[in-house]
Each structure stands twice: as structure tokens, then as C-alpha cells.
Amino acid sequence: MNNEAAQMLRATGRRPRIAVLLGSGWAPLAQRVADPLRLPYASLPGFPQTGIAGHAGELLLGRIGAHEVAVLCGRRHAYEGGDVAAMKGAIDALAAAGVQTLVQTNAAGSLDETMRPGELMMVADHLNLVQHSPLVGERGAARFVDLRDAYDPALRTQAREAARRAGITLHEGVYAWVLGPQFETPAEIRMLQRLGAQAVGMSTVPETILARHAGLRVLAFSLFTNMGCGLQAEALSHAHTLAVAGDSAPLAVALLEAVITALPA
After folding, report:
1. Contact at 8 Å (CB) between 81 and 89?
2. pLDDT in tens, 194-220
């Protein structure tokens, strides 16, 4: 456990029970946090250094609706240095400080023609295509984490209903984690489709494993920024991902606000 950072978080007097991890395209949620206390990751022991556009690298403690929240503005990806446990210090500290639920977000490629760029998907399950775990090196029985309900069924039901009330179309499907940073080939996209994935991206799965190891309940959402390679003619790039994500940010933020507001106290 990251006890030093947890003590620093408790010393702020804030008591968040929900943490939100903002991926590419979801950053504008930070502007919706009331009475924010801003803590740079660099000031918190064990928190990562971020180096990707769209990932600010700071923790906000504040409120969304009736809930106190901890908003992680950015993550460190495994492709930035090979460390699949890069978010361990942050997640462990939040859990030790009293957080009970982690809401994750990401930008993803769609593998399903019915799920188009600019639309949203709730993650129902995942494929760890990298087949590497952030728990390598852990000790004791707790490292053998049961991922049967990695994405909490009860929270997914509440999120589904919140989206319906808000009039937001929310797909559901399986998210495939690939290491990156290169995009997938057409052959790889065809393989992922045959394996049963509806979305592909370069994050989220390690953080879900870490969160479940820390005893947190998990929700996760993908914002589709492109169709998978070979499913459309447009060339893929990180700039394209950020541009589409930026255009779709209002819808993504509306979903997150609706879901967080509807979560149990």
C-alpha cells in the first residue's frame, strides 16, 4: 500500500469514495468538479509521471453532484516505459485513503460497425492481449485476483439506467488491451473481432487489475475515436484520436456526470 500518499490525501480533509481516471477525450470533466483542490502527481509519492498529450498529471479532490470525488487527470501507459504497474501507487493510495469505486475512461478504436466514432461504450469485460500483469512481484494469496466480475455488474446496471435517463446511447462490449504505441494492423483487427472484442485500446486493463487487487469496484467507459484499421479508409494517428475525442467530449462528460451522480453514496 502507498501509505505516505494516502496520509497526504487524508490530511486534506477531503473524503472521496469515488475516483475517476480520465483518459484521452475525457479531460473536460475536470472543469465540472466543484471546489477543486489540485495536487500535481509530482507532489504525491508513488504517483506516475505522465508524458502524453491530453494527460495533465494532476489529482483533483472536489465534488460532482452530491459525491466527493478524486479525479485522476491522466495515466501513465505501459508503452511509455514498459511498466504495466505504473498506476499502482496512485490506485493503492486512493484505496488506502477510503476510495471504494474506480470509474475509468479511455479512447478506443471500434471493431463493430454498429459502434461508430464519437459514440460511447461501457466495458463489460476485457481481453488482456498483452498477457502481462501489474501484480507480478506481489506476494501472498491476495495476488490471485478473481476477475469474474472485474467490471461490477450492479454498477453497470446503475450506469445503464443513468445513461437511459440522460438520453445517451451507451453501447456495451468487450475491450481488448494491446500494448501499443503503434496502431493495430488490419490482420490484428480481424483477429480481435474473431476473439469477441468490440473495442481496442492501449490502457485500462492494468488499472482494472490493480483496482480489483486493492478491493475497489470498477466501471469503465470507452469513447470511440476511430474504426479499427482496415474498417475505414482514414489513416490513424494520435492527432486524429485527440481531434475526434475533443469533438465528442461534451457527450462523454454528460455521461460521466449522469453516471457519477447516480452512483450510491
Report:
1. no
2. 999 999 999 999 999 999 999 999 999
The owner of cell 483496482 is 211
Q: How confident is the model at residue 54 (pLDDT cuts 50, 70, 90)?
A: low
Give the active site residues: 24, 55, 77, 79-80, 107, 202-203, 226, 238
Q: What share of the chain is helix, strand, coil (3-state, %, to 5)?
A: 35, 25, 40
Cis peptide before 40 (omega within 30 of 0): no
**Rounded to whole angstroms, how far apart are CA atoms 38 and 43?**
10
Name every residue whose Cβ is closer than 8 Å to that of residue 157 and which is 6 or more positions away in sequence. Answer: none
pLDDT digits (tens, 9 = 90+) for 103-134: 999 999 999 999 999 999 999 999 999 999 99
Helix (H) or strand (E) holding 222: strand 217-227
Q: Give the number of C-alpha atoms closer than 13 A to the C-alpha of residue 248, restricted to the C-beta side.
A: 28
Domains along the chain? 3-262 (3.40.50.1580)
Q: Count of alpha carbons within 13 Å of 232, Cβ hemisphere only?
A: 14
